[in-house]
TrEMBL record:
This is Alpha/beta hydrolase. Keywords: Hydrolase, Signal. The lineage of its organism: Bacteria, Pseudomonadati, Pseudomonadota, Gammaproteobacteria, Alteromonadales. Residues 1-19 form the signal peptide. InterPro entries: AB_hydrolase_fold.
Length: 219
């Protein structure tokens, strides 16, 4: 019995010692590591990490974070408070990215992923950073409104994923408006029939391509 309890204790310690459960910006920056920021959709803003939309169902933020996690990078995924101002939050994200760079992390080892409102914030952050070596992933956020906003331009390497049954489509118009700032552009569509809710959960249709793209774009 003592041996069994000891083994259980070791297993518990081992699983928790290496778990990144808070997804916070690191207190100690490793210049040789890779960092990925994930910004969630608007519905999650507030205190509930698993809110339910009347049309698209539950947004499972904890599950998205868990499945987006990878041993090849440090995932940073903050739960934004209610009524977050997108431009001010983008300033905070840009400051965190600049802190990584100032501490020796190559820009090519930094990626920002954003869905819906989080994708809009990611695009604004790119405009602030103006760094053509950083990687950006936009998930269902390239609205016609974003394409018309001249003050927002995406820089660096861009990967876009959109759902064919969703009203939010391709990022091609956003890129075409300022194609001189984008270092590379790849885009795919998925067809789950879930509309905007396709990204509410870590579905393989978008998750696998995103993680594969992140692994290809590394320093």
């Amino acid at each position: 019995m003592k041996l069994l309890l000891l083994l259980l204790g070791v297993l518990t310690f081992s699983s928790s010692a290496f778990a990144n459960e808070n997804y916070a910006f690191p207190e100690v920056i490793d210049k040789n590591a890779r960092y990925v920021f994930y910004s969630h959709g608007y519905i999650v803003e507030g205190e509930n990490p698993t809110p339910i939309h009347e049309r698209w169902g539950q947004y499972d933020f904890p599950a998205v974070k868990a499945q987006l996690t990878d041993s090849s990078y440090h995932l940073i995924a903050t739960h934004r408070p209610a009524k977050t101002h997108p431009f001010k939050y983008a300033e905070k994200l840009a400051a965190q990215v600049n802190k990584l760079i100032e501490n020796g992390v190559p820009a090519k080892n930094i990626s920002l992923v954003g869905f819906s409102r989080g994708g809009f914030i990611t695009a604004i952050t790119s405009s602030y950073l103006k760094n053509k070596n950083i990687n950006f992933v936009i998930l269902a956020a390239c609205t016609s409104g974003l394409a018309k906003r001249k003050e927002i331009a995406i820089y660096g390497h861009l990967f876009s994923v959109y759902e064919t049954s969703d009203s939010v489509g391709s990022c091609s118009d956003v890129v075409a408006r300022r194609d001189d700032t984008v270092s590379s552009f790849e885009e795919i569509s998925i067809s789950t029939g879930k509309e905007h809710g396709a990204f509410f959960k870590p579905r393989k249709e978008w998750l696998i391509p995103v993680k594969n793209w992140l692994k290809r774009h590394k320093g």
